[in-house]
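Subject: histidinol-phosphate transaminase

B.,
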Amino acid sequence: MGAIDFCQNPSICISKFRPNSRTETHWKRRVSVVASSSVPIKEKSQSGEVARGASFIRPHLQNLKPYQPILPFEVLSARLGRKPEDIVKLDANENPYGPPPDVLEALGSVEFPYIYPDPESRKLRAALSEDSGLESEYILAGCGADELIDLIMRCVLDPGDKIVDCPPTFTMYEFDAAVNGAHVIKVPRHTDFSLDVERIAEVVEKEKPKCIFLTSPNNPDGSIINDTELLEILNMPILVVLDEAYIEFSGIGSRMTWVKKYDNLIVLRTFSKRAGLAGLRVGYGAFPLSMIEYIWRAKQPYNVSAVAEIAACAALRNPTYLENVKVALVQERERLYDLLKEVPFLDPYPSHSNFILCKVTSGVDAKKLKEDLAMMGVMIRHYASKELCGFVRVSVGKPQHTDALMEALKHFY
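Prediction pasted inline below.
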């Protein structure tokens, strides 16, 4: 909705009207009535009832289920009665090694914290261009990739529009669609967590959804989308948003440069996993030029903080550190997978990411397993959705974290 020019409506234009003493009382009464008519506040009833704050909330949001985030260290520490350093946190796919030491040094030298950050994140986008091989005009940074997911939906979806979601996957897609008043068409994955491309094609033809959100590697199972599947979906009349939050651990290259060829592709990336900057919230996306102009118009002007940009640039200046951490996590992922296979009530799935999904078997209750491990100071992720009933997900940590997890699991067999 655009702005209203009050002076084009004589019933509410007051800038040129000068009431005299005879009309002043009548004018005040009139202004009061006109002003109150533009605000949806209930009149007081005989019982004195007035509008509740919730009555102003858009109807589709009143039944919205809140997103369930992972609890931070300080909250876990208080609940479990343990020091943060005594908690083995394997529930949020965080990078336990943290950022390069240069990042902390750079953060300590922030010169102008009282000045608004660059609204175009020019230094960061230039560094990302060098890192990815994609020109900076295709790149837009965000307050985490989560902000960009919501921003894309706000730019693309009208209330009532449809998106395709392929569960089990990252639940923010469904959540943000609900926030934006869109309908979610679910095309469940096969039992091996691969995409049902044939069913996606049927849904696109019949339901005419605007966009589809895909994660590769997929969260929570770690499977990847091959080029053949992705190309088949890109040939459909739908906007494809490819979330590559975990691409560094996959052994395959990013598809960021594909946006130069495919006008219906957006690729999202993040510094949370690769660079250990989850707490600073910085992500980025590659967009086709025909679309990015409008995304720029709609984004908040100062969405990436000055410290987030400084930290991300410092991380990119340390590629050797990032590579060494990636190698360490991939190696530990393989060790963790082999150890989990030895647990009689766990059936782990091969992963291309920094986590491993496990089916809990042999009559063991997955939710209780998660809760019992938490009492021992070991945090893993449990799911309540129908697609993942009886599953848990374990993030890859340092070797000592794996050892602590395995020692705790021995209490159950």
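The radius of gyration is 26 Å.

T.
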